[in-house]
Write a structure and sequence with these properties.
Elements (H helix, E strand, L loop, with lengths): L2 E6 L3 E8 L3 E6 L3 E17 L14 E8 L9 E4 L4 E6 L3 E9 L7 E3 L6 E4 L6 E7 L10 E7 L4 E2 L4 E2 L12 E8 L9 E6 L8 E5 L4 E4 L3 E7 L5 E8 L10 E2 L30
Antiparallel strand pairs: 1-2, 2-8, 3-7, 4-5, 4-6, 4-7, 4-8, 6-9, 10-11, 11-12, 12-20, 13-19, 14-21, 15-18, 15-20, 16-17, 16-19
Amino acid sequence: MAEVTAHDLPHARLRILELEPGEAYAHEAGGCEWIVLPLRGAAQVHCTPGGDGGGAVGAAPAAVFTLHGRSSVFAAVSDFAYLPRDSRSRVTAPRGGRFALAGAVCERTLAPRYGPAREVPVELRGAGGCSRQVNNFAAADAFDCDRLIAVEVLTPGGNWSSYPPHKHDEHEPGRESRLEEVYYYEIAPRGDTPGYGYQRVSPSPAGKTDILAEVRTGDAVLIPDGWHGPSIAAPGHDMYYLNVMAGPDRAREWLIRDHPDHAWIRDTWPGQAVDPRLPFHEAEDQTR
């Protein structure tokens, strides 16, 4: 039977599936839109759209997507599949694997779609010890969703990411958006030694979340509000995290406010080189 771990906030959702070879998972979208993202392995996704959910005209036909996936989150950018609200889907892994279903409560019904790996924008953000790679597969300006925003961040061992600490828990048009966030982690081992890292969330004027957590592969941190960052990768252990964001604002946009005590760090980046260990992999895979 499929092993499913759920991490839910009022607006943002995350499911992590562990599937054995040939195993399938039946997924009911309900009032959320979802993206199926391979973390390890390949999958076939069968999606049958449901009602109009208040936005679509006419019923979309059933869709089948072959996800080529990847051997690990550190090996490649992955392709993915978008599942609309009210749909019914089946995720099958011929050789087994681990898969993320990133979701958001939404209003509109969009069509099921395939996201090729070669079209995922890859960004190198920060510099020096704050260098990291961001795979913007479902960023607000990269892939059309109703409310869901999702990206992957890869941080070389010893570096800090999600830094300077920032927040998005107040609605201020053009300046800050309200977005909950789920962080899901995978940490690279060093030989036979499992990896680990740390995540900090501190209270903001609009929220009281206060977390300092050691994180390992399979862990998640739920952030309804607060200044989040840094995400710290232990030396020798590269860190991956999947960010899943959604909120109550009608506009789908990622507007953040840096912590005033630490925003100065951005001014130091123009004089530093990006960590030479980046990128982990190329932005485009022409075979997908």
